[in-house]
Amino acid sequence: MGSHRIFDLKIDRFEGPMDLLFHLIEKNDIDIYDIPISEITDQYLDFLGEMSELDMEIASEFLVMAATLIHIKSKMLLPGPRGGRLTEECDDPREELVIRLLQYRRCKVLAKDLRERYSYYSDCVYKLPTLPRTIGINVLSIPQEFDPEGYNRAVMAVCARNEMRFADISSKITHLLKREKISIRDKMKAVWQKLIEKGRVFFHELFPSAETEPAEKVAGFLAVLELLRSNRISADQERPFDVILLSKKEERSRKESRMYLKEPHKVRKEQQI
Amino acid sequence: MTEVQNDEFSLSRDELPAALEAVLFASGDPVSIDRICEITGTDEKVVTEVLNTLSDTYKHDHHRGLTVRRLENDYVMCTKPEMKTILERFFRPRSRPPMSQATYETLAVVAYNQPVTRAQVESVRGVSSDSIIARLLERGWIQECGTLDAPGRPVLFETTQQFLMEFGIESATEMPAMDLMMYSTIRDLEESLETAAGTRDVRQVSIDSLADANDQKQTDCDEG
Amino acid sequence: MTEVQNDEFSLSRDELPAALEAVLFASGDPVSIDRICEITGTDEKVVTEVLNTLSDTYKHDHHRGLTVRRLENDYVMCTKPEMKTILERFFRPRSRPPMSQATYETLAVVAYNQPVTRAQVESVRGVSSDSIIARLLERGWIQECGTLDAPGRPVLFETTQQFLMEFGIESATEMPAMDLMMYSTIRDLEESLETAAGTRDVRQVSIDSLADANDQKQTDCDEG
Question: What is the CATH number of domain B16-79?
Answer without folding.
Answer: 1.10.10.10
